[in-house]
Amino acid sequence: MQKIDIAQVSGGGQRRTLTGKGFTLAEVLITLGVIGIVAAMTLPVLNQAVNKKVRAEQIRTVKYKFTKATEKMASLGLIGPYDSTASFVAELQKHLKIMKVCPSSKLRDCWPYDTITLLDGKEY
């Protein structure tokens, strides 16, 4: 911080010096630079934390909806032996909105080829 004499005032038998105190341009720029660096380092971490929470909530929602659909099927007496997975899925679709059903012969078309990392860090 720099002290600058602005003016000298006299009157009433006294002489005073008016001073202005303020930050120099260099000090302001350095401070803004440090703030920018800290922000650049923390924002990715914050984004990652938010994405993790969003993913956990999505998984929780899917589990809840699936549980409710199967509970409804059980209350209607529809849980029981099925001839095939396809017949179970056909019945489940009546109680749960299923976007896409993947035939067992074309699973590669439904799932990504990339490595999948779960919330606990396990990779598949």
Automatic annotation (TrEMBL):
Coiled coil: none annotated. SUPFAM superfamilies: Pili subunits. Keywords: Membrane, Transmembrane, Transmembrane helix. The chain crosses the membrane at residues 23-46. InterPro entries: N_methyl_site, Pilin-like. This is Type II secretion system protein. The lineage of its organism: Bacteria, Candidatus Scatousia.
